[in-house]
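Chain A, query sequence.
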Amino acid sequence: MPLPQGILDSSLDAIGQTPLVRLQRIADAEGLKCNLLAKLEFLSVGGSLKDRIAKRMVEEAERTGRLVPGKTTVIEATSGNTGDTSFLD
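Chain A, predicted structure.
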């Protein structure tokens, strides 16, 4: 997956563009005959793979009219794995 080139217009443009790194030395040391890859999600905008999920949820809510840009307030109750997000008019 190529990284976006140049200057991005928004941090949202970087979501889903986290790099993959080949771990060839580990694969060789373990005798693995595969492409062993690590996805560096800690380099995501919010530092987590949950960035993609959150972006998708907001885009879907906007598409269906549940979230209206400039009108609806998004509340993120926690940054934990079992957090809750609410949309308020």
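The first helix runs from residue 24 to 29. The chain has a mean pLDDT of 81.
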